[in-house]
DNA sequence: CGCCGAGTTGAACTGAATCAAGAAACGTGG
DNA sequence: CCACGTTTCTTGATTCAGTTCAACTCGGCG
């Protein structure tokens, strides 16, 4: 599928979008590639873009006392941005690291907000994206509050086995809120059954 | 301040709202009161409303294995709803319990979505509310991931001392993700210094 | 080869949970 | 206004999930 159609399909999954509005949205987009290990946004920067991931994968994390804590992973056909910073205009607490070389559409923030101003569909898509993000965060908060490390791992396995396969122990454990050693032990347990 | 002005002030803090749109939004609202211990929404129901809290306080919580886990508190001038259920149309995982007798505006979901459809400002307010909710959730997720119980308590103290005063140990501990006994001990520590 | 980062395993440690027993606070009815 | 039962909060003793630190294995790569 060509990149523009890929974007259109992703947007259309949120709400119907009139052709002329989509055309406005997509006509000036640049494609930008990122090598493994590079960053879409670094902690402390003020986010200036939304990215649409055509291929590859990324990891959002923040640091505290020198330790890294992963808040999410993103894969192709997803929109990615340091949402907190994009919304607040404050320095991002979160870094976005490329963990599989990626091709993206680069959507400047100013352009996005212009799109919000010009079109009702724009606002709607923005609302639906924010709502979807909210739901992800709430679900995770509930899991962090109420489940043990082992239960969180089990749940992730069942919801997204591909992710569990493809991501390093180091990154996965920091997403689950545990140490790599603990995840290793949990895995051993699961392998037995 | 009269209720309508109170609502208008709260909405205006999100974005400017034209008079005729506000009039449309506010003209048919009912006021509904809730006694202490009653519920705005119960786990398993499909949320049909947004509430605007004119006075009082509420607690959002879910249960797992018979235990309660609090995800948030709300006070006057805030919008309250079982957001997950409102968005997904699925049964709410979350209950909203009144912890100080409350007066609310009752905003039916159908009416809200009608407002979204009719006005661009509607969509915008919806977007801004969802974004604000997202930020709260992200901040909490980050704290749950990276801080110890004691650090989370200290942070809450400094951010919202009134809340720490006014809420029972039981509810506060379930919000911090610890047992009441642990919170009691943490408090004793803090009292010493 | 030999190095290096990623993953595993073991042993000791610790923050918080659990269990159990009191103490304080609260409302309700006599 | 006090006596009571009920719930909330505190305190102590014990247990446990997960951390920490250290040593070892493994596969990739210069």
How would you portray this structure in words?
The structure is a homodimer. The first copy, chain A, has about 190 residues and is an alpha+beta fold. Chain A has two domains: about 5-145, Jelly Rolls (Sandwich); about 150-193, no CATH class. Chain A contains nine helices and six strands. Chain A has helices at about 5-10, 20-25, 85-90, 110-120, 120-145, 150-160, 160-165, 170-175, 180-190, and strands at about 30-35, 40, 50-65, 65-75, 80, 95-110. In chain A, strands 1, 2, 3, 4, 5 and 6 form a six-stranded antiparallel β-sheet that branches. In chain A, strand 3 (about 50-65) and strand 4 (about 65-75) form a beta hairpin. In chain A, helix 8 (about 170-175) crosses helix 9. The longest helix of chain A has 27 residues, at about 120-145. Chain A is elongated, with a radius of gyration of 18 Å. Chain A starts with a helix and ends with a helix. The model of chain A has no long low-confidence stretch (mean pLDDT about 95). Chain A binds a DNA duplex (30 and 30 nucleotides) through helix 9.
